[in-house]
Write a structure and sequence with these properties.
Arc Repressor Mutant, subunit A, 8 helices, elongated
């Protein structure tokens, strides 16, 4: 029996498309946590994340035969998650400003002074980032928290690679400006 952890996403997709449908489970397991975090980041609706995630995996499964093998599977499924999240936002269910999730604070168990300072800084940063326009917030989240490359962000957001750098730069400037204004009131 093969070790599915060593098989690439693209190889798994090919196996699923050619009849081994049960292997889709491995793709779900690989992306479930990451996509949950990403969807929550975009929608800020904890109770609705599972529904959006389910739609993402259903669309991915249904459209696997049309997957462009020249792209990375991760970019393709993030694009589906992006579209589903934006569609959810557009449906009028959430507020204008979308908050960053509490995963900034995840993993903080030590109560040392340094750890408390780090959590305070992360909380302040979170408050600044939540005020960003979605066009700046999405690339920042994908780059810094989802650790996507410029090319992957370009595929996910369907923007030229050069624009990714511009949006990241402008987003960082906006975050600095928001944090500066907030701290100097």
């Amino acid at each position: 029996m093969p070790n599915y952890k060593t098989i690439t996403d693209e190889e798994l997709v090919a196996m699923v498309v050619f009849g081994k449908k049960e292997l889709f489970y491995h793709l779900v397991k690989r992306y479930e946590t990451k996509l949950t975090r990403y969807i929550f980041t975009i929608t800020n609706r904890k109770n609705d994340v599972d529904d959006v995630l389910q739609n993402v995996f259903l669309k991915a499964y249904k459209n696997l035969p049309t997957f462009n093998k020249s792209l990375k599977f991760s970019s393709w499924i993030y694009r589906i998650a992006h579209n589903e999240s934006v569609n959810f936002i557009g449906s009028g269910f959430i507020q204008k400003f979308i908050s960053m999730p509490d995963w900034f604070e995840m993993g903080a168990k030590d109560n040392t002074e340094e750890e408390l300072d780090n959590r305070q800084i992360k909380k302040q940063l979170k408050n600044c980032v939540e005020k960003l326009d979605l066009k700046y917030k999405e690339p920042l989240v994908l780059f810094y928290y989802e650790e996507k490359t410029y090319e992957e962000i370009s595929d996910i957001l369907r923007i030229p690679t050069g624009n990714v750098g511009v949006l990241l730069h402008r987003g960082k400037l906006q975050v600095k400006k928001i944090c500066y204004e907030k701290n100097n009131r």
